[in-house]
Description:
Blueprint: E1 18-27, E2 34-42, E3 46-50, E4 64-67, E5 72-76, E6 83-90, E7 93-100, H1 104-129, E8 134-136, E9 139-141, H2 154-159, E10 161-165, E11 171-175
Antiparallel strand pairs: 1-2, 1-7, 2-3, 3-4, 5-6, 5-11, 6-7, 8-9, 10-11
Amino acid sequence: MHYPPFVATCRPRAGAQVVHEGWLLKRGEHIKNWRSRYFVLFDDGTLLGFKQQPAPGVYNDPLNDFTVKRCQLMKVEGPRPNTFLVRGLQWTTVIERTFCTATSEEREQWVAALYSVAKKLKDDETTTVGVEPVQQNGDRIFDAAMIPAFQQSPEILQKQTKKVVSHVGHSINLIL
């Protein structure tokens, strides 16, 4: 079975390396309770979540399995402190996943690792595919996912956030 490249499907490809791992609280997408999960981020963009910490190299039967390819990251201060959001495509639907860490330092580490992997995947994609304009009604339109990201480190990125208050009163820091 063939899946489009933007779809979160299965396990990391053979040879994928672990970039970051650890315990996170993940908020359910449908039932909005918080669950403790052990997440493993791979350099191919795969993010796997488990009920218990898996043995090194044994990543069978994850409870959560998705990609950070072409994702958006946002730090938020609600509904809990040290929360961050990962927004990405699953098939053609935008899915927003909410995570929480025990400390602000852990959140910074996770956001930096996720950003690093997502940026590398975007850079690899643009060097392989390139940015080609699409003609639509005479206008030149670019696939935004294919335009190279600005060249800044997560430390600089952290300082360039814009605080916004959402419609439910939560404070959100958008990473610009």
